[in-house]
């Protein structure tokens, strides 16, 4: 074998008996093509029954996209052998060490695609490699789901469930995450009781046990509550700060919308009222200062909401939370603000679940953390067509999957780190 063929055989990571037999370099087309072949007379095990020393029956020309060589697109071409087994009589395709069956990409190329799709939208990755979006999606579907098939859920004890719209005005998706590991466990279409049943099945399929789930954190939707009671029988249902504040924000906005016609000063103030006061910009601070002097209903609503937020910040245990909630509840009931009277009634009805948050210390920071990952997933999946595609990206960036292929360019670093 000429020296440069030996070099490329090594550079492509090929194992014997495969070796580079020809290299064609076309700088104008920006590509480099490698022919890879087997020495004449190479014999294989039967891929079906494993009987050794079978001759090649016939071959089929195939090509694979490989990692770039410098700035050049690289392709591997080989004649894939089939063996007709003398033992089992079946004719079957021999697997190649550089690609999984049926893929037009090498495993290293796929690993790079997976690594890049964690950082940038799928269509950007597709454009960068000048391949179709569909090809990138097929790689992701395969690699992410096979990594997820191997994920271990045996230690899952405290979960959270959230819903998100897959696309504006489209179907809801339920997302189940692991509070202790901060990872997405399961995403599926729908937000009814059945989604909790499907989650319980997934949990079992990955070595977990629905009976050992101790706490389930959720919004106050009847479907999740009922589904959890049925399918996660030992989970304490918990309503976390994030969802409670979400409801309080809706109530504030309701009051503001009723009042804005009579009080034009309230125009363009929506985000000031909804935002955590600790996160106000200077402009919002001034605006709030001006508006709170106007004896507005919206300002009273806002104070009710912020007091509720403070309850979650200040209470150190269930007893303190219970006492603070009692005084908030009577204030809200007397507030003469219909949306807050309704909210107070709702929270009172779910009081135990609200207080459970202080037992199980389910930090709302984690819910927000997961939510921001899901928002990132939506951005990465721009142009996706199905719920499954969004779920794939969500698993990729929020699933903490340990069996994903490692990026071909970070292997060395990963090894020294461990
Ligand atoms: Zn055989």
Give the rounded overall mean pLDDT. 88
Shape estimate: elongated
Summarize the amount of helix as a percent range: 40-55%
Derived from helix and strand composition plus strand pairing, the structural class reads: alpha/beta
**Do you know the CATH topology of the largest domain?**
Nucleotidyltransferase, domain 5
Bound small molecules, deduplicated:
zinc ion
Strand content: 15-25%
Q: Can you count the beta strands?
A: 10
Q: Please give the CATH architecture of the largest domain.
A: 2-Layer Sandwich
The CA-CA distance between the termini, in Å, is: 38 Å
Counted by DSSP, the helix tally is 16
Number of domains: 3
Helix-strand string: HEEEEEHHHEEEHEHEHHHHHHHHHH
- Give the low-pLDDT segments: 411-418
Gyration radius, in Å: 29 Å
What is the CATH level 1 assignment of the largest domain?
Alpha Beta
Quick take:
The chain is 46% helix and 18% strand. The chain is α/β, with parallel strands linked by helices. A hairpin with a 2-residue loop joins strand 3 and strand 4.
Tell me what the structure shows.
- It contains 16 helices and ten strands.
- The chain is α/β, with parallel strands linked by helices and 418 residues long.
- The chain has three domains: 102 residues, no CATH class; 175 residues, Ribonuclease H-like superfamily/Ribonuclease H (Nucleotidyltransferase, domain 5, 2-Layer Sandwich); 119 residues.
- Strands 1, 2, 3, 4 and 5 form a five-stranded mixed sheet that branches. Strands 8-7-6-9-10 form a five-stranded mixed sheet, with helices on both faces.
- The radius of gyration is 29 Å and the shape is elongated.
- It binds zinc ion.
